[in-house]
Amino acid sequence: MASGDDDDPIIEEIDVYLAKSLADKLYLFQYPVRPATMTYDDVTHLAAKIKPKQQRVELEISMDTVSPNYCRSKGEQIALNVDGTGYDETNTYSAKMMDKQTFSSIQATTNTSRYAAAVFRKGELHVTPLTGILQMRPSFSYLDKADNKTREREAANEGGDSSQDEAEEEAKAITVRFARPESEQARQRRIQSYEFLQKKQAEEPWVHLTYHGVKGGRSEHERQYLFCQSVDASENSELVKTPKEYLAMLMPPLAEEKVVKPVGPSNVLSMAQLRTLPLGEQVKTLMKNVKVMPFANLMGLLASGTDSTSVLRCIQQVALLVQGNWVIKSDVLYPKNTFSAHSGVPAEVLCRGRDFVMWRFTLERSVMRKEIASIIKLPPEDVKEFLEHVAAPRANRGWEFLLPTDVDFIKKHPDVAHRQNMLWLGIQSKLEKVFNFSKEDFVPKKSAQPDPVHISGQQRLKMAQERVQENQSTLQKDLEDRRAGSSIHIKQEPVSNSEDEPMDTSCSSSIPNGSLNGYPSATSPDFDHTNGGSPANTASPELQDFVIKTFRKHFVITLNELKRLFNLHVASIPVGRSVFHSISDHMLQDAILLSQQCKQIMVPFPAQTKAAPDEQKVFGLWETGEDFDKHRRLLYDVFTKNYRVRRNIIQARLAQELGDVSKADIDRLLNECCSSHAGMWYLKGTIQS
Q1: DNA-directed RNA polymerase III subunit RPC5 C-terminal domain: which residues (predicted)?
Q2: Helix, coil or strand: residue 128
Q3: pTM for this entry
Q4: CA–CA separation, 265 vs 281, rounded Å?
């Protein structure tokens, strides 16, 4: 058949028959220690026996003692060691030399449902299922018998005359003891012991068999049972399975064996297994075990050469910054729908209490346990666990934070420190509502000290410089806040979508009054979310470049999807190199509308639609300079009439406007711009659940 030919002609049809005459008694013997060219067909078989339940077979095969390859002296020595010098019926070798060999079987597989023996005759294939597959290997039980003979001879020589020990012993009291009832655990151990298994195997009696050679008349008679005896057409059934189902019947999937891994102590972490995990899982596992760690120590535990920027992105997803050190997030340590091991308190309540403890450590080095317990009102065991994670008790100072403030990290990564500070402001606002307190209640009061009698000129100059620096920083911060307006500071770590989490630490849900990172968010009343808003000329070249490249790749995008892609793009930029500082939803939408290559598609969603407002804002690639642009424009026009259409409607509209349109062009158009569901086509991102 030619390689380029798509046809697959049928060369020959073969009838397949299932023979059942030997289905429960057909075994396949394998001899793995002997080449296939050296068979035992012409060797004399002295005896054969089987234990059917265990599928255990033993064969006795004679050895050619007159062969030039046979060492007669060694054979006689082995027989002497096994049987000794005497002769009786229990001797293994009656000829006073090793003249036979025993083969014992082991099961090659316990499940033979996938295996069968097949014979082909006159264009018919006859298949018989196998009962077992046995591997025949030489048995060396005669060595055990020789070893026992040696021990008996040594015991007889050392025993000597024991007539002196045969004196009648005096009568002694006998204490009768009754064994305790066997527990279930002890019974299971006994059943699984090697001694018990050996005893059970020995209980099944051997069934002695008669061996018939391959070329014998009885063997030829039995081989006829490999062919199906009944070929009645009424018993035949037509195969109605699909090719996939038939292949699954021929080769069913293997059941995966569950490997029980040894359970180690909960406080032991295998670094070898840790290195096999993805970077995010490595960071999460380390933080769950250590609870609090400096960033430099975390980098030291990871593999050499790990990118610190990637580690920074991962650590911000599972930990929060406290005094320059990273502390595992409460919702990671106490997942949803779990409970306290001490008191049974739900995880959401534990997260609130632990977040309060961590927040207090962002304000001061030490806290008092009684004060914490009086506010969060949790059992003492849980409060102690919170503190033990991040602090240590100190005499007359309460609980002090475990690690010194990592000033180097804060100086090296000011953008990360600022972002974490904004997160803590959001957490603080939630805690104030839950526990009904004010931050001023916990700000440490400076004790009043009398002014010194004499202040030198250098001291006055230093104090004046400090006051000037404080005033400048305050003015600079106010100026930045005023300039920022309604901009949104884009986070570089993923934001949790769960809004019902009581202690979600993501910025979008934790900053009060609809603000994000201190600025009005796209969901606040101050932000214009209406369609057709006039775009302001605020899109930077970098933002416009991102928009154009994204639309050339995805063709049709909702505003919500574009925001997600933009967040991923910002997160992929190394820390400190981002040119996107404050990009709002409005600015992102303006960048689309300002681009001459993209336009909004006014999709008429039904009034009862469950789509979010940003999912109802759909934009498409309009102008690329290629002829295929007119296909996309016609498609967009079709979707301005209905938010879901059938393929024939799209095909008819294209044929009406452009004439004959090939199937390849229609497929390309639908794959680029649409998604299919239940026989209908939707623009990307607009399928209703």
Answers
A1: 444-689
A2: strand
A3: 0.35
A4: 20
